[in-house]
Protein backbone atom coordinates (compact mmCIF):
# COMPACT_ATOMS: atom_id res chain seq x y z
CA UNK A 1 0.00 0.00 0.00
CA UNK A 2 1.46 3.40 -0.94
CA UNK A 3 2.46 5.62 1.90
CA UNK A 4 0.45 8.71 2.62
CA UNK A 5 2.02 12.08 1.97
CA UNK A 6 2.62 12.50 5.68
CA UNK A 7 4.33 9.07 5.99
CA UNK A 8 6.73 9.49 3.08
CA UNK A 9 10.40 9.96 3.96
CA UNK A 10 11.05 12.75 1.45
CA UNK A 11 11.46 16.29 2.63
CA UNK A 12 12.11 19.68 1.05
CA UNK A 13 12.13 18.61 -2.58
CA UNK A 14 14.03 15.35 -2.19
CA UNK A 15 10.98 13.51 -3.54
CA UNK A 16 11.54 15.05 -6.97
CA UNK A 17 15.20 13.99 -6.95
CA UNK A 18 14.27 10.48 -5.79
CA UNK A 19 11.70 10.16 -8.56
CA UNK A 20 14.18 11.32 -11.21
CA UNK A 21 16.86 8.99 -9.85
CA UNK A 22 14.40 6.08 -10.05
CA UNK A 23 13.61 6.84 -13.69
CA UNK A 24 17.29 7.24 -14.62
CA UNK A 25 18.00 3.90 -12.89
CA UNK A 26 15.28 2.25 -15.00
CA UNK A 27 16.80 3.71 -18.17
CA UNK A 28 20.26 2.51 -17.16
CA UNK A 29 18.83 -1.00 -16.87
CA UNK A 30 17.82 -0.74 -20.52
CA UNK A 31 14.15 0.08 -20.10
CA UNK A 32 13.01 2.25 -22.97
CA UNK A 33 9.63 3.47 -21.78
CA UNK A 34 9.02 5.95 -19.01
CA UNK A 35 6.60 4.96 -16.30
CA UNK A 36 3.48 7.02 -15.81
CA UNK A 37 3.53 9.36 -12.83
CA UNK A 38 1.20 6.93 -11.00
CA UNK A 39 3.47 3.95 -11.76
CA UNK A 40 6.50 5.88 -10.60
CA UNK A 41 4.76 6.90 -7.38
CA UNK A 42 3.90 3.27 -6.65
CA UNK A 43 7.49 2.22 -7.41
CA UNK A 44 9.01 4.66 -4.93
CA UNK A 45 6.23 4.18 -2.38
CA UNK A 46 4.48 7.53 -2.32
CA UNK A 47 1.08 8.84 -3.19
CA UNK A 48 0.71 9.81 -6.84
CA UNK A 49 -0.65 13.14 -5.60
CA UNK A 50 2.76 13.86 -4.10
CA UNK A 51 4.49 13.38 -7.46
CA UNK A 52 1.90 15.41 -9.35
CA UNK A 53 3.20 18.41 -7.39
CA UNK A 54 6.41 18.09 -9.43
CA UNK A 55 5.26 16.46 -12.66
CA UNK A 56 1.88 17.45 -14.06
CA UNK A 57 1.95 14.50 -16.45
CA UNK A 58 4.22 12.03 -18.22
CA UNK A 59 5.45 14.73 -20.63
CA UNK A 60 6.59 16.89 -17.72
CA UNK A 61 8.35 13.87 -16.24
CA UNK A 62 10.04 13.22 -19.60
CA UNK A 63 11.27 16.82 -19.80
CA UNK A 64 12.65 16.64 -16.25
CA UNK A 65 14.46 13.38 -17.02
CA UNK A 66 15.85 14.92 -20.21
CA UNK A 67 17.14 17.84 -18.13
CA UNK A 68 18.94 15.35 -15.89
CA UNK A 69 20.42 13.76 -18.99
CA UNK A 70 21.66 17.04 -20.44
CA UNK A 71 23.18 17.98 -17.09
CA UNK A 72 25.02 14.63 -17.09
CA UNK A 73 26.10 15.20 -20.69
CA UNK A 74 27.46 18.66 -19.81
CA UNK A 75 29.45 16.99 -17.05
CA UNK A 76 31.14 14.78 -19.67
CA UNK A 77 32.46 17.80 -21.55
CA UNK A 78 35.73 19.18 -20.19
CA UNK A 79 36.05 22.88 -19.47
CA UNK A 80 38.92 25.32 -19.55
CA UNK A 81 42.05 24.43 -21.49
CA UNK A 82 40.76 20.88 -22.09
CA UNK A 83 37.67 22.14 -23.96
CA UNK A 84 38.17 21.38 -27.65
CA UNK A 85 35.89 20.43 -30.51
CA UNK A 86 37.19 16.87 -30.27
CA UNK A 87 36.64 16.71 -26.49
CA UNK A 88 33.01 17.80 -27.03
CA UNK A 89 32.47 15.06 -29.60
CA UNK A 90 34.23 12.50 -27.39
CA UNK A 91 32.05 13.52 -24.43
CA UNK A 92 28.92 13.35 -26.54
CA UNK A 93 29.77 9.92 -27.97
CA UNK A 94 30.87 8.44 -24.64
CA UNK A 95 27.64 9.64 -23.08
CA UNK A 96 25.56 8.14 -25.92
CA UNK A 97 27.33 4.78 -25.64
CA UNK A 98 27.23 4.72 -21.81
CA UNK A 99 23.64 5.95 -21.43
CA UNK A 100 21.81 4.77 -24.58
CA UNK A 101 18.27 4.73 -23.16
CA UNK A 102 18.65 8.12 -21.50
CA UNK A 103 20.25 9.47 -24.67
CA UNK A 104 17.33 8.21 -26.77
CA UNK A 105 14.84 9.81 -24.40
CA UNK A 106 16.69 13.16 -24.44
CA UNK A 107 16.68 13.37 -28.21
CA UNK A 108 13.10 12.16 -28.58
CA UNK A 109 11.84 15.56 -27.44
CA UNK A 110 10.67 18.03 -30.06
CA UNK A 111 12.80 21.14 -30.42
CA UNK A 112 10.24 23.31 -28.63
CA UNK A 113 10.27 20.90 -25.66
CA UNK A 114 14.10 20.77 -25.71
CA UNK A 115 14.29 24.51 -25.12
CA UNK A 116 11.37 24.68 -22.67
CA UNK A 117 11.64 26.53 -19.38
CA UNK A 118 12.43 25.70 -16.66
CA UNK A 119 13.52 22.29 -17.95
CA UNK A 120 15.32 21.12 -19.97
CA UNK A 121 16.08 24.42 -21.75
CA UNK A 122 18.89 25.67 -19.47
CA UNK A 123 20.62 22.28 -19.49
CA UNK A 124 20.37 22.00 -23.29
CA UNK A 125 21.69 25.54 -23.74
CA UNK A 126 24.62 24.71 -21.43
CA UNK A 127 25.67 21.83 -23.69
CA UNK A 128 25.23 24.01 -26.80
CA UNK A 129 27.26 26.83 -25.20
CA UNK A 130 30.13 24.48 -24.36
CA UNK A 131 30.10 23.08 -27.89
CA UNK A 132 29.95 26.55 -29.44
CA UNK A 133 32.87 27.71 -27.31
CA UNK A 134 34.90 24.62 -28.27
CA UNK A 135 34.19 24.93 -31.99
CA UNK A 136 34.71 28.71 -32.13
CA UNK A 137 37.47 29.32 -34.64
CA UNK A 138 36.66 32.98 -35.23
CA UNK A 139 34.73 32.26 -38.43
CA UNK A 140 31.61 33.98 -37.14
CA UNK A 141 28.60 32.93 -35.13
CA UNK A 142 26.62 31.32 -37.95
CA UNK A 143 29.62 29.34 -39.26
CA UNK A 144 30.44 28.08 -35.76
CA UNK A 145 26.82 27.12 -35.10
CA UNK A 146 26.66 25.26 -38.43
CA UNK A 147 29.88 23.39 -37.66
CA UNK A 148 28.63 22.40 -34.19
CA UNK A 149 25.35 21.07 -35.50
CA UNK A 150 26.98 19.33 -38.46
CA UNK A 151 29.46 17.49 -36.21
CA UNK A 152 26.80 16.76 -33.62
CA UNK A 153 24.39 15.59 -36.32
CA UNK A 154 27.03 13.28 -37.80
CA UNK A 155 27.78 11.78 -34.38
CA UNK A 156 24.09 11.48 -33.56
CA UNK A 157 23.16 9.93 -36.89
CA UNK A 158 25.98 7.38 -36.91
CA UNK A 159 25.27 6.42 -33.30
CA UNK A 160 21.59 5.91 -34.12
CA UNK A 161 22.53 3.77 -37.12
CA UNK A 162 24.75 1.64 -34.88
CA UNK A 163 22.09 1.37 -32.23
CA UNK A 164 19.49 0.34 -34.81
CA UNK A 165 21.81 -2.37 -36.13
CA UNK A 166 22.39 -0.77 -39.54
CA UNK A 167 26.02 0.01 -38.66
CA UNK A 168 27.61 -3.26 -37.61
CA UNK A 169 30.57 -3.42 -35.27
CA UNK A 170 31.94 -6.29 -33.21
CA UNK A 171 31.76 -4.23 -30.03
CA UNK A 172 30.59 -0.83 -28.78
CA UNK A 173 34.25 0.27 -28.57
CA UNK A 174 34.78 -0.53 -32.26
CA UNK A 175 31.57 1.32 -33.12
CA UNK A 176 32.79 4.30 -31.10
CA UNK A 177 36.16 4.22 -32.89
CA UNK A 178 34.47 3.99 -36.30
CA UNK A 179 32.12 6.92 -35.60
CA UNK A 180 34.93 9.05 -34.16
CA UNK A 181 37.10 8.34 -37.22
CA UNK A 182 34.29 9.39 -39.59
CA UNK A 183 33.87 12.67 -37.70
CA UNK A 184 37.61 13.35 -37.83
CA UNK A 185 37.64 12.57 -41.57
CA UNK A 186 34.79 15.02 -42.12
CA UNK A 187 37.05 17.95 -41.27
CA UNK A 188 34.45 19.31 -38.86
CA UNK A 189 36.71 18.55 -35.90
CA UNK A 190 40.42 19.22 -35.65
Task: Give an overview of the whole structure.
- This protein has 190 residues and is mainly α.
- The protein has 2 domains: 14-56, Arc Repressor Mutant, subunit A, CATH 1.10.10; 66-186, Tetracycline Repressor, domain 2 (Orthogonal Bundle), CATH 1.10.357.
- Helices cover 66% and strands 0% of the residues.
- It has 10 helices and no strands.
- Helix 4 packs parallel to helix 8 (121-135), helix 5 (85-98) packs across helix 8 (121-135) and helix 5 runs parallel beside helix 9 (141-164).
- The longest helix is centred in the C-terminal third of the chain and has 24 residues, at 141-164.
Q: What are the secondary-structure elements, in order, as H or E?
A: HHHHHHHHHH
CATH architecture title of the largest domain: Orthogonal Bundle
Low-confidence spans = 1-7
How many separate helices?
10
Q: Provide the β-strand percentage band.
A: under 5%
Question: What is the number of strand segments?
Answer: 0
Q: What is the overall shape?
A: globular
The CATH class label of the largest domain is Mainly Alpha
Amino acid sequence: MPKSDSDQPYHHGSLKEAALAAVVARLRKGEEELPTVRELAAEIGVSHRALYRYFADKDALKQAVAAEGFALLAGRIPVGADLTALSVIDGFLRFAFDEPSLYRLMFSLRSTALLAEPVPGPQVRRVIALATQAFDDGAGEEAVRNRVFSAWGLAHGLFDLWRAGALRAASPDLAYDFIRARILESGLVD
